[in-house]
Amino acid sequence: MLSALALLASPALAGGVGLIGRGGFHGDRVYYYAENSIGEAQQQDPIDQMNLDTGGGLELVLGDKDYKINAFLRVYYMGDAPVQPPPDAEKYTFNLRTEDWRSLGVVDAGIQFGVLGDAQAFQMCILGILGSAIMTSDQTEFFRANAGVGFTYTFARRMQAHAEAVGGIRYRKRLFPSAEMTAGIRYLFD
Q1: Which residue ranges form the domains of the chain, and what is each CATH number?
Q2: Are 132 and 145 in contact (CB under 8 A)?
Q3: In whole angstroms, what is the distance from residue 93 CA to residue 138 CA?
C-alpha cells in the first residue's frame, strides 16, 4: 500500500518555464459606411488590410531538454494595432477602432521537432501551433493556426534561448493571413 502511494506521489520534473516576446502582422477587414441620398448609412465595399500586432507573456515547456521533441503552452497578452481608414476617410463613418490598440488574451499550444543539430546545444526546429484569442474586450475571439521554423540554443545547462518565425491563419468569420516572430528564454527543470 505504501509503495503504491509512493508511485503516485513521485513528481515529473521534465519541462521548463519561460518568458516570450512576439511581434507580427495579420489580415483585417475594415467595414465603413457612407450616407446615401436620403441620409441613411449604407455599407461600402470592405477593405482588406494588413496590420501589426505585438505582445509577450509566459511559456510552459513539457519534455526533457535532451529530447528533440517538446510541447509548449503559451499564455500571453497580444495587442492589435488600429485599422487604417480608407484614403478618403472624411466622407465615411467607421464601426471599428481606428485610434486605439485592441487588447487580447491569447492561449497557444504547440509542438517543436528538432530537425538539425543537438538538443543540448544549437538546434534547428520545425513547429506547429494552435491557439485562440480567448479574452477580448469587444467579443472578437478568433482561432489561430501557425507553422514555421525556429532555433534553440541551450547554455548554462538549464537555460535555453529560442527564436522562431511562423506563418499561418486567423479565423473569425473568414480566414485572414498572419505571420509572426517570437523570441524568448526558458529555464529547463531537468
Answers
A1: 15-28+43-188 (2.40.160)
A2: no
A3: 19
- Containing H/E element for 7? helix 2-9
Residue 29: name the closest of 51, 61, 5, 7 by CA: 51
- Between the alpha carbon of residue 1 and those of residues 4, 6, 7, 12, 41, the distances in Å are 5, 9, 10, 21, 75
Q: Which three cell numbers stand for residue 81?
A: 494595432
What are the pLDDT digits (tens) for 22-76? 999 999 887 777 766 666 767 777 788 899 999 999 999 998 878 889 999 999 9
Q: Give the tens place of pLDDT for each residue, 136-186.
A: 877 788 999 999 999 999 998 899 999 999 999 999 888 999 999 999 999
At which residue does the C-alpha cell 505571420 appear? 179
CA dihedral of residues 12, 13, 18, 24 (deg, nearest 10): -50
Helix or strand holding residue 112 (H, E): strand 102-117
| CA of residue 87 relative to chain centroid, distance | 30
Amino acid identity of 189? F
Kindly list the strands in the beta sheet with 93-94, ordered across the sheet, starting from the edge strand earlier in the chain. Answer: 41-43, 32-35, 93-94
83-127 pLDDT, tens digit each:
887 777 666 666 566 678 889 999 999 999 999 999 889 999 999
Grid cell locating 174: 473568414
First to last CA, the chain: 29
